[in-house]
Protein 1
Amino acid sequence: MFLYRIHVLLYDKFVYMMPFLLAIGIGITPVVVSLLSPLVMGFITVVALGMCTVFARVYPQLRYVAYAGMVVCVGTGVFVWKSVFVFADIWQGTPQQVTVQGTLKTVRYAPNKTQIRLQDVTVDGAQIRGDIRLNVKGIPVAQDISLPYPKVVSLNARLYPPAPPIIPDAFDFRRFATYNGIAAFGKGVGDMAVIDSQSPTFAYRIAQHIYTHMSDRIGGVAIALITGNRVGIDADDVRALRGSGLAHLLAISGLHLGLVMGAVYMFIRSFCCLVTPQFFTAYPIKSYASVISLMVAFLYAVVADFPTPTVRAFLMGAIVVLGVLVHGKAFTIRSVSVVASAILLFTPESLFSVSFQLSFMAVLGLVAVFSYIRYNRGIWAMAYHVFIASTVAMLVTLPFSAYHFGTVAIYSVLANMIAVPMMAVAIVPLLMVSVFEYVLFGSGYSLYGVEFLLSVLLDWAYVIYDLPHSVYYTGHIPLWAVLGFVLAMVCAVHTGYKKTGISCMLIAIGVVLAYPDTRPDIIISRQGHVAIRHQQAYVIPTKNSFYFTAALRKQTGISTFIDNKCTKQCAINGVLYTPKNFVEHTPTCNRPEYRFIIAPNAVLRHCNIASFDKADRIINAYQGIKIHIPQ
């Protein structure tokens, strides 16, 4: 009976459920592969696929249950195939200076820092599978665009492998690098030798052009909006944009591509109507304008190097154009499901990226909500729609923001009420004008207007960010809370249990915001940094590390305090910390006020006090540890 109910549900909503079924197959694969080899996992997947096929033939009344199992197996199989043949092999060497040679894949230029990515790389003459990303001071064409643009380069660099999480549940940089095809990171040392040259890319030329006509601070934001290159954005500006809930404006997504396609579409239709009205009535100009606008959007995506939000927006735009050509409805949940399924099939690793999760959950929520809202014209109607869109996007992405970043922007709706119309009406159209101005005339007069508008946008972000309690630190929330929210959203959107699903979504959001206090008493990073909890803060008695402090704040949601007086020895909340060697015959064994001891060579076999040996941290705390001291 239970399987039959699932069959009936899938029979009506199979297309809608495909991305979630693929996500199940992709999501379980890394866990199983960590226990079994990829080849064994591939064999199990083939056997399971065959069993589902047999089940569909033997029990045709339950065939959609078997089809669901097949989709799950396909997701698993695609991810296993990419993990064996496509994903990068992490460079296993120790941090050292080596000679690197490779083909220039991308250049993210900024005045003070240039980031390059090399493919077909050899390290000291040995070929490696995967790319290398390097920070360099500059490349030969940094000042003179007429010089040969490098294609194959050779340079000395200090390489280091991607790091695992600095503390448990923190950002896994190693997994990020593996799924993005990066084998190692590094920093260039000395000059770069150009072995072969090529013509400069358009993204690099436009970056040079913008930095020539704009200040470095505002130019970095403008380049991010055009090419997706965020290297030149100031760190304080990034913090303000994230804290105000405006960081999504930096991602080239549906807002940007929609404005580009809409502007091109309106320009072509207006031009044909004004110049040759007879041509406008004799031919399907609406269809022609739609196709041309999609081609321009494709060029925009090429310049941005096809990040996940851009791919999602372009595919949605393609479906919209198809709807225009066949006179159908394009903005449906079915369209979102088809696009999500296509991306997961070709790039299954996108499931684990923050951009994929945030963008698709936001689009799914917006399409579901606006299908019940009637569109009206006028300024107040537009303000109402922006308010609804900002509120829905904030609510449906809140669990994911809390899970990945440990923060929630409280005033994001207020910030977007001003920023989104400004971006849609003025900034993006003027950026388009500046690009066409550069291509046609080589000038940059419109960039002065862009600089003014972007400075206003950044000032607005700082106004919101400086408000009291603008950022709420949730700390790390469990994965089950996020999965429960996704399941509730599926019930609300794809089934007949809409009221139940919406109620569960609100409960899940409440669980995220009021997650019980399970913060550990002691956190030790994989490098040996120590944080000891004292009331509503963590005291760090060791030398400060920016990455450790940032990860600690995101994971726990409470502030940190660096105690420089603990360089010799100190006791914090019943925890004794000392950088000196600690032996078992120390009189401290007889002092009951100590509940835990952290020291090198802390061997306390004859004491009733727990201890942690910092000298063995490379073995015992390679991934970092969290310690809960019993009261």
Note: Residues 56 and 395 are 39 Å apart (CA to CA).
Protein 2
Amino acid sequence: MRPYLSSPGKIGALTVKNRVIMEAMGNALSNLDGSMSAEDIAFYEARAKGGAGLIMSEAVSVSSNSGRANPRNLCIDDDKLIPGYCQLMDVLHPYGCAFFVELYHPGRQGDSALNGGRRMFAPSAIQCGLTRQPVIAMTTEEIACMVQKFINGAIRCQKAGVDGVLIHAAHGYLINQFLSPYTNHRTDYYGGSVANRARFALEIIHGIRDACGPEFPIAIRISACEYLDYIGLPREAGITLELSKEYAKLFQDAGADLLDVSSGIYETMNTAWEPTGFDQGWKVELAHELKQVVDIPVVCTAMIREPDYAEGLLKDGVCDFVGSARAHLADPEWTNKALEGRDEDIRPCISCLNCMKTMACGEMHCAVNAQGAFECTRSTLRQDGDGRPVAVIGGGNTAIDSARTAIRLGASEVVILYRRTIEDMPADKVEIKDAIEEGVKIRTLVNPTDFVGIGGKLNSICIMKQKLGQFDSSGRRKAVASGETYVEEFDVAIPAISQTPDTKFIKGTIQLNGDRVVADHYTQATSMPGVFVGGGAVVLDAHRGPEDIVNAVHEAKVAASGIDKYLGGSGELFKGFDQEITDYHIEGDIVPHDRFLTRQIEAEKAVGSFCERNLGMHELD
């Protein structure tokens, strides 16, 4: 279907089955001692099964004492860690997928508290403008010791059967700090000239090559441009494309087999982990230009989302491999679907950065893939909902996603209860049509007034029929109570409305904290068995809509998935009160914000901050 994407590629002596690389991304899944967890293995296995030719690991620290950037940071600085990587390779290799470990040290971008309160190593004592951690300039003895840590990490990888290593010299981490005139102000032979600033990286490459032999693949990832002009500094104050061309030739001559091209540092992180304001392929010129000066293969990472676009990059000779991280988080089957021409089945990454936001809090969540990073607990959902009807309350995208997920899990009947007409439903019209085609029933002009439980579990819902009244300020007919009520049996209910909170109708039946429903963090189960809350981030303020909708849709999918375990009769789902989710309005009218006018921000204005995440995501993207 796509001859360039599907063709094998060479990285040194290694043949990769296709040209698709899942790039390195943190997932906060390792054990606290830095060892490989079952969750890590399941995460990578899903992407290997999904067809990726090569997977780059998350950033793996070569020093657990000085090189941690988060509590669940994989490490490779002790022989006792080797068995975990052996186990991972035993799982991945049957899929024909190659795996590289990304060796790194965060340097000044690490977290002192996670490293025994030590000052973070750096080439010069210059704090990171984002992390603001205490730093110390490394002595030449400490540099030599750190070079050996990288070499030792590669040796352990080779012993574990790992296919190669990726030296992380990008994104503002320690090796990048040595390469950049912005962070390297040394006056010895590790600073000053281009060759001196490259010395640290070159010693690592030479050392790994000498220790692991000529056949062991060595890749290096660089930030080809730090884009310091995005934070008000001259671009030339840091690494530029022209400077990267010099480095690329040096790395190739030292023995690197692959050049992985990215950009940015923590201060300009939106050029490395782009929000929605950036176009697909916005920085392909970096890889293309570097490919002109080296003979080794080049990987392009530039928000590549669409298979046709990726195929075109390879066909046009822009790069030799295409890489993406978040695209494979959103859909582990991206590669298989792309190679089989099933583009419409791909679940696209929407670049909302919910993964980054939540990982910073210790647990990664993908807004469009509730199973992402939860493969151990959410990927074996039983389709055992036969004979049990499910009610989803609401009319927006949150409700539609909940209903479609529930019916895919095997519920015999899924009914959306909406208080207005189907024409007034704020959900995307295409999604409404698709939901109906999947078997979702939509019942309009009905308004739930109470949940009825028998034996403590949901048994039925009291419903007030509605009728159309006068027009409201949004141009829609108001739905007003008709006075006629009835009771309908449902085993499962998902309140999934994302506007105007009001939970007084369920006081006494479901545990609240103020006006918020208390729900379990992992299943969205409430204190009444059978009731799951979708739309976890409710739109309380129309101006906060885009960010809230991302979270609401994600929580709706989690809620629908939680039904599966409940219907299967497994254990206690309501485990605690670690998340509060505001419910929805019953009385009065709802005036939604305009879904088609959420403000977009030009890329050049967005890249210096996270403002694009809050204001720039179009809900329908």
Note: Residues 536-546, 570-621 have pLDDT under 50 and may be disordered.
Protein 3
Amino acid sequence: MQKEILRTQEEVDDFLEKIADSRPQYLALDIETDWFSDEKFSPLHLWLDWIGLYDWVNMWFIIHNDTINYEGLDVIIHNIPLITQNGKFDITVLLNLGYITDLDELTIHDTKILSFLCDENKPSHSLKELAKTILWKEDVVKLDDVGKKPIMEKNLLTMNKEGQDVFKKDELTPWEEKLWSYCIDDCVNTFELFHYFQKNIPTPRIWAVYEKIELPILKLLIEMEITGINVDKNYLAQIEDKIQDKILELQIKIYQEAWTDFNIGSAKQIQEIFLKLEIDIPEKYRTPKGWISTWVGALKFLEEEGYKIAGLILKWREFNKLDTWFIKALSEKTIHWKIHCNFNQIGTVSWRFSSSNVNLMNIPSRSDEFDIRKAFVAKEGYSFIISDLSQAELRILAHYTQEEVLLNAFTNLEDIHQATADKLNIDRNTAKTVSFWILYGMSSYWLAGTLGITRVKADEIIKNYFSELPAVKKFIDSCYNTVEQHKFITTILWRHRNFPKYGVRTQYPAHSTEEQKKAIRMQDFKDKSHMERQIVNSCIQGSAADYIKLAMRNITKKITEYNATILITVHDEVIIECPDKDLEVVGNIVKFEMENAIKLKWVPVEASLQISKFWCK
């Protein structure tokens, strides 16, 4: 391997000329920053140390220097496909610093996404772990081996005839030597992994999902993170004062009910208060040690039984969570009246998005004076177009099952939960809970606890549901059979979720006792039940993820010319910022793409559309 260090304008220009002549098929890219990839810091606020580029034969290290003109590098990067690992981070930093100017013209590959597509069950998709488990490399250089960057390293410089400090050609400081090895490792391993995944992708359909959906979504997420969203800090301050007042009010009422003060955030102290108040509760709401449970189901039961303190504690938790999890987090993360969230497209095994640096997925939707979402505001001259898919998972369930009850309700624009309730002769809330029990693969124990009924009653409701909606039961059984035969389930776009151990019995160790064999059989049963709860969920949730990603990709293609952009996505909802003058035309585009991303069999898709100056429901 030939290695070159590029510190000066002349060296950078020579490199650009060489690579323009050789035109390699791919370039592996790795950047090193002052904070590396620490997720506590946004890529927009990092200092670039250097860029590593590798083409299978040559390795180049471009030392970042504000005095060098890197304009030619932008042309090279745009003309040669880049192979990255966690490319969203690398590209965001380079875009922010001006190394990349046109994201649309860039061809990016990402081995982390490819790894997840091939096997989402891997304990880690980090580059170091993939190098060990796929490339069989044991001597990978770790970040801990590099250490923190020293403030000053004197042997970096020498003096020229004029007495000016200049860099020693092709010489590195001790710390840079370590970073050099680390960067070489990353580039070489990324390059080799990409070629491995090219040859070993499970099916051509999965490669199509990667190229046609995941890579465009990768670019979209980069744009979303760089753009950010405006936050009204004045509104946050006002709502924080109101929430603090509410928390204090609830705290006083709880102390009055308890006849003493205590730490409301301590489950142990709540249990001790319940004991002093001589509260009685059924055994199922107690811990194995006999204490009254403090989980939501137990407190709701106590509230219904007339114990005011339980309801007050639930309210206190709700407002305390609003304050600590969201208000304070938003205030801390907002810079120059904007927040830049990190969106992760492989954050869940169902391929749903997750977010960090403020978790937007968990911000509650409220219609009262404590609505945090109203703090997210459009910039001047713009408005939000907010679109949300209606009952996406249940529509996909209807598509797969062709269940008459579901098809009729959606076709006739009926309330799906009321239609289910009428068919089962139960109330709407119970029907809604049972439907989500199906979608999320919960146990009958969970259903009983959620509805506050006995396990026997929960089993009766489930049995009746499958009796009245037999196509749903048939679909679930077919999912189990598919996984038993192929060890994976697919989504609507043929994305895989792997279950290699489904239906596999654990072999008894030699000389096992009957008691040990029984324990093994019991564990096998628990493992299989757990996998069965995930199988249907993976198919339905994964298909919903396919749908919203495809819709977002199509929307982005059509609204860019109107200077409109997708800012955030939460579950099946997208928020677009659009110039006020183009709201009607962009709104029509958004609604059409949200409702037609994938044609479902005999099931119409509905998407709501709302225009607002702030994020609302």
Note: Residues 255 and 520 are 49 Å apart (CA to CA).
Protein 4
Amino acid sequence: MIFYINRIVLWLKNGEKRCLKFEKNKVNIVTGNSKTGKTAILEIIDYCLCSTHHNISEEYIGENVVWYGLDFYINNKHYFIARGDTRNNSSEFYFSATGVEPDYPKSSMSIGNVKNILEEEFSIDKNTAISFGGKSIRQGSKISYRYFLMFNTISGDIIENSKTYFDKQYDDRYREALPRIFDIATGITTIKDILLRGEVDKLKGELNKQYKEKDYISNLIENKNLEIKKIIKNAIDAKLLTESIDDEQACINQLKNIIETLDLNNVVLKDYSEKLEQYKIEKQNLEIQKLKLKKFQNRYNKYRKSLEEQCDAIKPIEYIKTKFAKNIESDEYKSFLNMLEYDYLAIKESIKKEMPFENGVNNKIEEIEKAIEKIDQQISLIPTTSYIALDDKKRLVLLGEIKNKFMELINSDISTNNIEESIKITETNINKLELELIDYEENKKNLINSLNDYIQTYIKLSKEPLDEYGDYLADYNYKNKMLKLRKEKSPTPANISSSSDHMYLHLCMFLGLHELLSNNESPYIPPFLIVDQPTRPYFVNENLKDIDYQKTKEKLSKKGDWNKVIGIFSLLDGFMKNINKNDKEFQMIVLEHVSKEAWNGLESIHLVEEFDGEINALIPPNINKSNN
């Protein structure tokens, strides 16, 4: 992606125009005193790029500006956007697709159409959608190009923050969007892969429904077979069948034949009492196993309860050790307390730890209960041994009672064949699509390793300003989207508290991230970064509005910090050299409060303007004086 700002143009209420000119492939610095409009430059750029909310001061700026304009290049196209005054977040937009700056803007396009044009330049189409939803963002909704702009600013709100590295995290939509767009922006995944995963998820949902349907049909078949078994049992009880209940199909065939022929002469009665006794013995054995397991379970529960009681009894040791350990001089008493504490922690750990056999016992009891339930069902299907003879008339009446239901059951065509074939097709389609998917975890691991390597370049350039952390290793925290530093061979990151170090970490992370994005040719992130006053950690004991920017070297909180101030601009200069060395393009805008001594001799630095507040400012000082 190609992007750089040519100019910011303001149409003032007095009829004048105010322009700021920037250079590409440079670190463009606007420096000067407080209350001169430097920070508003970031807000104006965001406002012209269709922000919903803005923080442009109504005092001095909003009260003097009628239109805000942005002259910029994107993907070899020259655009000019102007937006009406900031009252009520103006929906009046002037747009030129050829970079034409009007003498005075007139609304020519809706904000929706401007966003559509910019979305296309940010490679966003209908398929660029949110892959998983949240409270404020709906799954499947189109990604806004404005979410990607979080990669392009380090505002004063976050530059010293130890936990927040991306802007707009106070806004629910942007906070939820960041983890959802990070993978796309960095190339961990692609839109094609997201669409494929969406298709796979859709097929898996369909497969889940198919398996549920198969289970439903299987239950119908099982119920049908159970009803047939009951009819066979009733038919044997009615002395209609000769075949053994163990041969179900033979019983079905004989019953069908009897229904068709009404021939009852060939029935030979059988005794099933032995089979019944066999089932009863099996059930008793299972009940004994279940009883033993329940007994073991009860004993183990009592043991755990006794451990909890012991733990409660010696729990005060924690309080005693915390409150009185320093006052205890007796070695014998100390040893006794240490022993109690050891026992307490050991018991506490035993209670917390779940033994492997616990789930095993529960599962075994459940398995036995199911087996008992099955035997009970088999017992219910054993024919009753009756020694009372039935005449043919009585037997035919009983045959009539079971005939209709029996014929309905055996003639019903219930089968899982069709659904099993559908399942097979769906599983084949899923397997085909999954072969095309990116190995997400491997990609993420490789990219984070690569990002750490890029960031490490800038940590090395910041070795002196980072003091004792200068030799530490970059450790990007993917989950929290923040940078940590880790000592070599240490498994845990360092606990850093200095605001200067946090500021440098923000710079190193963004510079490393942008170099990675540049080399990977990300189509979503503009090669552009705005940094708002990175030197602020060095003036913590001073009120900046009372400091003349030309004398900031003398007003530092610590006199030795000037080298750290110089280090900031050396770092940014080093980044631009790396980018240009790779034949890439990048533009940076830095809003500052220090004198140009801080970057003397650095090739990549371009001083845009100095806002002293007397002769020059974003809004010319003479306007404010005339208004007064």
Note: The mean pLDDT is 89.
